[in-house]
Amino acid sequence: MCLICALVPMVNAEPTRAQANAELEQVRGRIEGLRKEIEDDGRRRSRAEKALAKVEQEEQKARRELAQTRKQLDATRTRQGELEQQLIRQESDLETERAALGQQLRVAYINGSEEWMRVALSQQDPSSLGRRMAYYGYMSRQRSSTIANLRLLLLELEKTRKYIEREARDLLKLESDTSNQLEEIADTRGERARLVAKINKDIASKDTEINRLQAQAKDLSELVAALARVLPAMPNVDAEPFAGQTSQLRWPVKGKVIKRFGQSRADGRLKWQGVLLDAPAGSNVRAVYHGRVVFSDWLDGMGLLIIIEHGDGYMSLYGHNQDLLKEVGDWVAPDETVAHVGDSGGRAAAGLYFEIRKNGEPVNPGKWMH
Fold first, then answer.
1. Which residue in 106, 152, 215, 281 could disulfide with 43, CB within 3.0 to 4.6 Å?
2. Using 50, 70 and 90 to split pLDDT, how confident is the model at 128?
3. What is the value of pTM for the model shown?
4. Residue 39 in contact with residue 300, Cβ under 8 Å?
5. Distance CA 114, CA 262 (A)
6. How many whole angstroms separate alpha carbon 87 and alpha carbon 94?
7. If you compute the radius of gyration of the chain from its CA atoms, what whole number of angstroms results?
8. 293 with 284: CB under 8 angstroms?
9. Cβ contact 259:361 at 8 Å
10. In this predicted model, what pLDDT tens digit does every residue of 253-278 receive, in sequence order?
């Protein structure tokens, strides 16, 4: 394929992570364009298949926006609760200051406004007079301080109430946005179901379906090969090499294996190059090991696909996702959530397609899992 031939291998010198990230950023556009170039060079896709790609990507966008809105909603509710607690504390402080001022005013009233004059004109000794004058001075300053505190508390109380009103308005808007985004997702799901039904109807024979599956498998292999050529060298991670993790890794989702590696498909004319795991839609898809994301996009047959490079020629692939949470260049750790289980790529039911490849060739994922 001319695309793969045109890609120039990168220098194999061991880079730092910062250098690798900078080099990856330089080729990010090439990586993101690989899917389109490979599909353009492949089989001719029907209008319904092209529309399916668009609809599933729109659904992912709506789900991302919904997730972001829900985060904002939770944060706003938390802020609102904190502000209401702050308001309660401020009102308590205000009542304390009011009570203090009331007590001070009662003392001043009892003593009379001219008490200080009587003290000054009395025949008391100078030291006693000094103490009494200091006391009245203290009381006067205390009243002034209490009044100033009251004014400040009233201002803060009013500010807090305005904040609560603003958060309440934001909360209403976010709840409205959530409702709209849920409706948008429902609309895309309906359109997706219609397109999948049309695609299945257009497949008039087993030969047509087998040709389609073969073309999709070829696209995936070409994508992995092209990625291997265009990617900058991956630096060592602070972990044991992937090759030494046999029987040590956890499956990316909890679920039954319904299609096994090497199992025949399409009347024996094809074999499964990975495994298909049965899992509920929306379940967390976890990275199986340390690595960096080198592909995060929609691919024919795989739907929303994420590929993680682990070094030494190893890659793990996660397909048919509902949405993708990581972008090209992101570094991930074992068990970190990278996507959610879905049915993208035209599947009839939710599930995760999972592969491990070594130098572009599929290997049995089962040997790595425990």
1. 215
2. low
3. 0.72
4. yes
5. 103
6. 10
7. 34
8. no
9. no
10. 999 999 999 999 877 888 999 999 99
Measured N-to-C along each axis, helices 126-202 and 47-111 cross at an angle, to the nearest 10 degrees, of 170
Tell me the CATH architecture of domain 13-42+238-368: Distorted Sandwich (2.70)
What 363-368 contacts at long range (C-beta under 8 Å, 24+ apart), as own/partner pairs, is 364/261, 364/262, 365/261, 365/274, 365/275, 366/257, 366/260, 366/261, 366/275, 367/246, 367/247, 368/245, 368/246, 368/247, 368/248, 368/249, 368/288
Contact between residue 337 and residue 324 where contact means Cβ atoms under 8 Å apart: no
Q: What residue type is 275 in one-letter code? A: V
- Residue 354: the pLDDT is 98
Phi-psi sector, 352: left (phi>0), alpha (psi -120 to 50), beta: beta
pLDDT, mean of residues 70-77: 85
| Separation of alpha carbons 67 and 56, rounded Å | 16
Q: Which two tokens stand for residue 171?
A: 């909360």
Contact (Cβ atoms closer than 8 angstroms) between residue 324 and residue 295: no
CA–CA dist 80, 84 (Å, integer): 6
CB atoms within 10 A of CB 5: 8
Strand ranges inside the chain, DSSP E: 256-259, 264-265, 270-271, 275-278, 284-286, 291-299, 303-311, 314-324, 331-332, 337-341, 352-358, 361-363
DSSP 127-170: HHHHHHHHHHHHHHHHHHHHHHHHHHHHHHHHHHHHHHHHHHHH
Contact 239, 179 (CB under 8 A): no
Contact 3, 39 (CB under 8 A): no
* 79 C-beta neighbours (distance < 10 Å), count: 16
Residue type, 291: G
Please tell me the distance from the alpha carbon of residue 248 to that of residue 288, in angstroms, as a whole number.
Answer: 10
Q: In angstroms, rounded to a whole number, what is the distance separating the alpha carbons of residues 131 and 124?
A: 11
